[in-house]
Write a structure and sequence with these properties.
The protein is mainly alpha-helical. The protein has 5 helices and 3 strands; from the N terminus they run αααβααββ. The chain is elongated, with a radius of gyration of 17 Å. It starts with 6 loop residues before the first helix and ends with a strand.
Length: 116
């Protein structure tokens, strides 16, 4: 995966700019996802200039750390969907992720962000 900056570098840049983030490894993963396909220019300079906005967007989009995509689906259903399913019904949470939710969320090393 493309890494324009690593966690330590992001933390140093944030400190220079007077910014803070609670988890620079998580921010590194987010920045790496955002810049997987750099589109010309200098992505490092773009990140440096817009780090405040990137941090705010990452914090708004972050939906926690989960052990698997299926675990995230269960979390999502419990916290964001009004549903009642009888306990005797089994749900394939991984299939729910694969067929539906993967289009609206990004899962990377346990971290999940909303793509909206």
């Amino acid at each position: 995966m493309y890494h324009p900056f690593f966690a330590q570098e992001l933390e140093e840049i944030a400190e220079e700019l007077g910014l803070e983030h609670e988890d620079y490894e998580r921010l590194e993963a987010y920045v790496s996802i955002m810049f997987t396909y750099p589109t010309g220019g200098n992505p490092q300079e773009a990140i440096r200039q817009d780090l405040d906005s990137i941090i705010r967007h990452e914090e708004e989009a972050f939906l926690g750390e989960h052990n698997s995509e299926a675990d995230f689906v269960l979390y999502y259903l419990d916290n964001y969907v009004d549903y009642e399913i009888p306990g005797f019904i089994c749900i394939d949470y991984q299939a729910t992720w694969d067929n539906n939710l993967r289009h609206d969320f990004t899962f990377d090393n346990g971290f999940v962000w909303s793509d909206a």
